[in-house]
Each structure stands twice: as structure tokens, then as C-alpha cells.
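sry for the spam today, last one i promise. C-alpha cells for design, 358 residues
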């Protein structure tokens, strides 16, 4: 039913400007009228990480639910975890529209949104509403945090968000890799990264209690070169963060993309990113000798893509762009497909596939 409805709705949605289509989807999700694909409940796919139980390893990547409006609805879609955000301390409008562009032939998107969101207070109200659900839906909630545009002290913004929202999160993601906030990606350089992480870790331990504090993850760009990957990997281990998300959108523009799409500024996601992000995961896993859990993201549009990222070193995976082109049925299909990949390889649990290819 979910598949059929998406097949009917897709031509209308894809005639609209992508952002309007997204807002319409969020509205429909909020009304609760959309049917959900049947759930996959397979013990081989349950993952325990950071002392948290993920019902399955497929998560919703940040950016889809920036204000934590539809967390419960995304769990109903079958996701094992939902990363809401990026949220910034103050509400902001982001870049002028249009700022999201679709390319159906390559199932790709370019966005230059620039963190439009309703700010931390609005986010907190929404997440409190979600937590009122009794029983709380099984599934892990990540909160992805970022800085407001133009701030002079980025660490202050991240610390504010840790203080305001840390206690609502099953994990926190420090986003330093969106290409659409000037200066953000510079935070990946060692001289900026180490002091930034020290302040955020200190704030987390102070605000959330050292023992049951949410794990802190850092989300990186897939555009780091080998030297940078090695250096950032060393920084993250040194700073004792809990995990890494690899990764965000890319600034690359493969030549086969049509000119009117190619020339748009912003971050590219979807199929053209698949191989690149898997390669970064493999390199990162090697440098860290598998000691730092990785959430793999970037162009996952089939179970084979997800499985390749897991075999390259990811413990969990996330999707966004493929959802735009394939609809909610994709979550179910990825999970069924992942179980089949395990069977084919004679592996009895998904966690044993992590890093198999390295
Ligand atoms: C329209 C759009 C908005 C996004 N917004 C965010 C964001 O706010 N924060 C973030 O960390 N990543 C954001 N992302 C990046 C995704 O979370 C993901 O890392 C990236 O798109 C690669 O995965 P995919 O190819 O499955 O989409 C956004 C992606 C898209 C397409």
C-alpha cells in the first residue's frame, strides 16, 4: 500500500519544486494518514552500539526532519534510528530559494539549504512531544547540531545546543561538514577541531552527566583527501569522541551530470556519491583499526550499497536522497536485502559483516 501510494504521488511531487514537495510530505506525515510499509523484525539485524539498542541498522540521515517534527512517523516507516536536525541555537532562514535541485536520471540531489530551521527552543518542544508517546517507539534518536551562520565562536553554539538538547538525545552529532555554511568545513582542520571537540566534550560531560551522557559523533565531509582522513581520524581518537558519520554531501561534480544540474552550487548527494563515501569509510576504518564506530551514509539506494558500506567498516547506515526517488518502501527493501546479503555470505549477524572487506 505504501509503495502504491508513493507510485501515485511521485509524479505530482516531482513536478513541484523539491522543497515544496518536501514540506508537503512532512505535512502528510504529520497528519498520520500515510500508510507505512510492513516492518522487518529480524534479530540478525539488531545492533547494540554505545550501549544503545538499534532495532535495525538503517537510519534516516540528517536534513530530512530538521525540526524533529516527524520522528515518530519515521520510526513507523521502519527506520531503526532517526537523526533529526541540523538544529542551530537560533532559528534561521537559510539561503534564498530555490536551493534544492533533483536529477532523476542519476537519482541525485544538490542542496544549498544553509541550515534553515526553527531553532533550539522549537526543536526541544517537538522532541518533548515525541517523548510523550507511550510506549516510546523502539528506535534511537540522534540530534544533529550545527552553528548559526556568521557566528564568531562556533564552539559556543555547539555547547549551547549540547546544554539545551543533550539530555533528549540517544546520541549527538556534531555537524562540521555541510558545505553551505561559510567556514563550517574549516572546523575539520586539526588546529580548529581539537579545541572545538575539547569544549563540546567538556560541556557534554557537565550537562549530561559523565556516565550516561549521549555518545558524541562527528559528521565529516567525503571530500577529505587521504592525508586529511588520516589526520582527522587521529584527532577523533585523541579527543575520545564515540563515533563518526561518513559522510555528508560532496562538492564533487562528476562530468556525466547534466549541465543545468552540474552548475548548481551546493552539496551533491545520491548515486554519484555512493562509491566515494564507501571508499572514505574503508580508509577511515583502516586508520582507526575499527576502534571508532562508523555510521555510513552517501548514495545508498539498494541493500547492496548499504552492505558494501558495512563491509567497508560501517556499523550502521543512513539514507536520505534515495528516499526521495524510491519512497518509504525502500526502508523495508533495504532490510530484507541486507538479511539476504548475510545469508549469501554465511554470516549470522550484521555486526560480523562490519569491516569484512578491509
Ligand atoms: C536536502 C538535503 C538536506 C540536508 N541537510 C542536512 C543537514 O541539515 N545536516 C546534515 O548533517 N546533513 C544534511 N544532509 C546530508 C545528508 O544527511 C546525507 O549525509 C547526505 O545527503 C548523503 O546521503 P544520501 O546520499 O543518502 O542523501 C542533507 C541532504 C540533503 C539531500
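last one done:
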Amino acid at each position: 500500500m505504501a509503495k502504491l501510494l508513493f507510485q501515485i504521488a511521485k509524479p505530482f511531487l516531482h513536478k513541484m519544486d523539491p522543497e515544496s514537495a518536501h514540506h508537503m510530505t512532512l505535512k502528510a506525515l504529520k497528519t498520520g494518514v500515510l500508510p507505512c510499509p510492513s516492518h522487518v523484525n529480524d534479530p540478525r539485524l539488531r545492533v547494540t552500539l554505545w550501549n544503545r539498542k538499534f532495532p535495525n541498522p538503517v537510519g534516516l540521515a540528517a536534513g530530512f526532519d530538521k525540526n524533529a517534527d516527524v520522528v515518530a512517523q519515521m520510526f513507523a516507516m521502519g527506520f531503526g534510528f532517526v537523526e533529526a536536525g541540523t538544529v542551530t541555537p537560533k532559528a534561521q532562514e537559510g539561503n534564498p530559494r530555490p536551493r534544492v535541485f533533483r536529477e532523476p536520471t542519476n537519482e541525485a540531489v544538490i542542496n544549498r539549504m544553509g541550515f534553515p530551521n526553527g531553532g533550539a527552543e522549537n526543536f526541544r518542544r517537538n522532541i518533548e512531544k515525541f517523548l510523550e508517546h507511550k510506549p516510546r517507539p523502539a528506535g534511537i534518536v540522534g540530534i544533529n547540531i550545527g552553528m548559526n551562520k556568521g557566528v564568531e565562536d562556533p564552539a559556543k553554539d555547539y555547547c549551547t545546543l549540547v546544554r539545551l538538547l543533550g539530555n533528549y538525545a540517544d546520541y549527538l552529532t556534531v555537524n562540521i561538514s555541510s558545505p553551505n555554511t561559510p567556514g563550517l568545513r574549516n572546523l575539520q582542520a586539526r588546529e580548529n577541531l581539537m579545541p572545538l571537540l575539547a569544549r563540546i566534550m567538556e560541556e557534554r560531560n557537565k550537562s549530561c552527566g559523565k556516565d550516561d551522557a549521549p555518545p558524541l559523533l562527528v559528521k565529516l565531509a567525503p571530500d577529505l583527501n587521504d592525508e586529511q582522513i588520516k589526520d582527522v581520524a587521529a584527532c577523533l581518537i585523541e579527543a575520545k569522541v564515540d563515533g563518526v558519520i561518513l559522510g555528508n554531501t560532496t562538492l564533487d561534480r562528476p562530468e556525466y551530470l547534466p549541465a543545468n544540474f552540474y552548475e548548481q552550487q551546493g552539496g551533491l548527494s545520491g548515486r554519484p556519491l555512493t562509491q566515494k563515501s564507501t571508499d572514505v569509510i574503508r580508509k577511515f576504518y583502516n586508520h582507526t583499526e575499527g576502534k571508532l564506530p562508523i555510521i555510513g551514509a552517501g548514495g545508498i539506494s539498494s541493500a547492496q550499497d548499504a552492505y558494501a558500506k558495512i563491509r567497508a567498516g560501517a556499523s550502521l547506515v543512513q539514507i536520505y536522497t534515495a528516499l526521495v526517488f524510491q519512497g518509504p518502501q525502500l526502508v523495508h527493501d533495504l532490510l530484507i536485502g541486507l538479511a539476504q546479503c548475510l545469508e549469501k555470505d554465511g554470516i549470522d549477524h550484521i555486526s560480523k559483516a562490519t569491516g569484512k572487506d578491509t
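The CA atoms of residues 285 and 313 lie 5 Å apart. ok im logging off now
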